[in-house]
Amino acid sequence: MAKTKTISTDEVLVMLCGSVKKVLSTATQTQISYSPMVQRITRTCLRPDIGCFVLFDGGFSGLVIMNFSAQSAMEIYRAYMMSMGMPESELATRHTTDEVGNMLGELMNQIVGDFTGHVGRELMVSINQNQPKMLTINKEVMVSIDTNLDRAQARRVSFTTARRNVFYMELAMDKTDFIKLHDFEQEEVDPDRIVDEQNNQSSAIAESVQTIDIDLLNELGL
User: Fold this and answer.
1) Start-to-end C-alpha separation, the chain
2) For tag attachment on the chain, is the N or C end more exposed, with fewer CB atoms within 10 Å?
3) Dihedrals φ, ψ of 33, to 5°?
4) CA-derived radius of gyration, the chain
């Protein structure tokens, strides 16, 4: 009998890190890298200066959080907008503006979309995401988001921009292993279809994602 292959939570984390690096590097046309050392954490939190989170469920459930400093948020925002032909004189100058939050929400949506597609191809598991939520907070506030996960595991990975600004990605998901019983053919990827889907999602997110406050988080039960 052929030896079975097991894919762990940390290997799923690697897929997510790959999506973060791929989407942000492509969007900003700069080099985004992440640390090979991963932190095991006990809870996931939104941290200053901008926090963004997405919940997903389906084959397994989880939560993705990205925490940006003002410097990393502005670097990514400026590089992304200028790569699309936006004049520098028309760019926002503060990380608290809606433009910056909407842009990060749009990129967050693309990251998780790429991740769910990767999971579907590699693990033959379908997961669905909700719309990203943004929170701009000062250095005195920390918000913890709890999710109903079965034996939750949480990890934290640091990313570095081209200008050496740091931001963090946190993942909480069910403790689970995926066991490959036999070989299977992966679905062929149509790049044009993926681009069209992401463009459609980005248009919707640009209209709906906005900076939210702690009172709204409380109303959502998060």
Assistant:
1) 47
2) N
3) -130, 160
4) 17
Tokens representing 149 are 């996960």
Domain of 187: which CATH number?
Answer: 3.40.1550.10
DSSP string computed for the chain: -PPPEEE-HHHHHHHHHHHHHHHHHHHHTS--EE-S--EEES--EE-SSEEEEEEEEESS-EEEEEEE-HHHHHHHHHHHHHHTT--GGGS--STTSHHHHHHHHHHHHHHHHHHHHHHHHHH---EEE---EEEE--TT--EE-----TTEEEEEEEEE-TTS-EEEEEEEEE---EEE-S--PPPPP-HHHHHHHHHHHHHHHHHH--EE-HHHHHHTT-
Total domains, the chain: 1
Distance, CA of 30 to CA of 32 (rounded, Å):
6
pLDDT in tens, 118-177: 998 888 888 888 888 888 877 645 555 555 666 788 999 999 999 999 999 999 988 888
Note whether 200 and 106 are within 8 A (CB).
Answer: no
Contact assessment for residue 153 and residue 9, using Cβ atoms and an 8 Å cutoff: yes
Per-residue pLDDT of 15-52, as tens digits, reads: 999 999 999 999 999 999 999 999 999 888 888 899 99
pTM of the model: 0.80
Domain containing 145 equals 5-219
What are the structure tokens assigned to 39, written together? 């932190």
